[in-house]
Amino acid sequence: IWNRRSRISRVSGHKMLRAGVTVGTWTMGSRVLGLVRDIVFANAVGASGNADAFFVAFKIPNFLRRLFGEGAFAQAFVPVFTETREKEGEASVQRLIDQVAGRFGLILLLISVLGVLASPWIALLFAPGFADDPGKLELTADLLRWTFPYLGFISLVAFSGGILNSVGRFAVPAATPILLNLSLIGSALFLTPLVSPAVMALAIGVFVAGVLQLLIQLPPLYRAGLLPVPSFKSDHPGVSKILKLMVPALFGVSVSQINLLLDTVLASLLVSGSVSWLYYSDRLMELPLGVIAIAVSTVILPKLSRELAHEDATAVRQTQSWAIWVVLVLGLPCAVALAAYGELILSTLFQYGAMQVSDVEAASRSLMAYAAGLPAFMLIKVLAPHYFAHQDTKTPVKIGVIAMFANMAFNLVFVWSLGHVGLALATSIAAWVNALLLLAGLHRRGWYRVVGFPLAASFKVAIALVVMAQMIWLMPWAVDLSQMDVLNRLIWTALILGGAGLLYLGTLMIAGIRYTHLLVPPSAR
Question: What DSSP state is assigned to residue 306?
């Protein structure tokens, strides 16, 4: 029999889980299309020198997509928007978004123009190893001229998504990344025969995607009565507050992405193909990160902001505990699967056309290193919003600086002996440093403390992880997979990954963990 608090927690958990499923479902569709996109990439350009050039040019706007589209702008905007809406009413809210649109849009226009003009220097900055190959560096700069304006488009998309998420409309912002993948797939299939080199078509596809992603935001904003009309006035106090919060928020919430960019810089100094191997392994890691952690993070930020506005400390603790519990229960098996079965997944998805067995083996090693940090990446996504809900941007920045320097130090330790794998391992270690310091900071300030750690439930999850990993004994080697056709690879992948998933879920059920355990963390029941 539930007591009153437990019942309220479960009702809240149902609401958050439903919202999380909405975001996660659309994100899943986007990530699956992203894998289709990368299959097309692998078949068309593989891990060649031109591929390295495109992946560097694509990494920069893609990094900015993750930075703006998956949290950083929202972390600064949503708490101020929510506070204004709760305390000052709709007229003040409209004035806020109009003025943010005007000032923010002007800043983005200037940055985009400067980025296009400075593309040769940006290319050299992010890929210094390309300096030894002038043709490769020049190609990267040419590609950047098409991809860099994506920053402006996706930032405005993030602004629109922040408004819609704050009023409980999650579907369109979550579905928006699908347009990027559709545009790139279409460009790869239909535009590559028309331009030379072929990778230029992909850069054009990035630009087109930015335009489409912005346009799709307008109808739902209009229906919600919140369509911004840009204004260059600055008399609303929320505008300056958002801008002040946004700069450190960009860095504080995205240190893991900055670390991935540092990996690209150092990888450009290694053997040819290193940038591509890291790209393909990172892409697989992004699937569970986006479907689980980013979905949960998107849902809890408006909720934490409302609960803090109402000074409901109990609800804040339960919301944060729920987020941590969900990302660990769902994220840990994803990490184990990527580490144990990465070679199988990479071969099935990418080993066609220009992609070789050696490329799959190299990418699987860096994927294993990234998988070690996947739970930490997820924790960062659900812990950082707590600081921004308190409108505290300084602490995550300090923690981010520590984590970034840790990543640089570990890069120097591991890169010389482990190559591109060492870069991935250093990024994972830095992510754990970041996540643990974020959790410690919340505890120290009294904003969130782990009360009644669910030791028994955690032990059951650990047993389930060990059991699911036993499917590795059935996995064929990469060389054997390369000799199979597509259908046989898909059958093996479905058999092993499906079997691993059933073993995990079955073990949890036998151990007594049910669906309702995702509604309320064990310590809160």
Answer: H
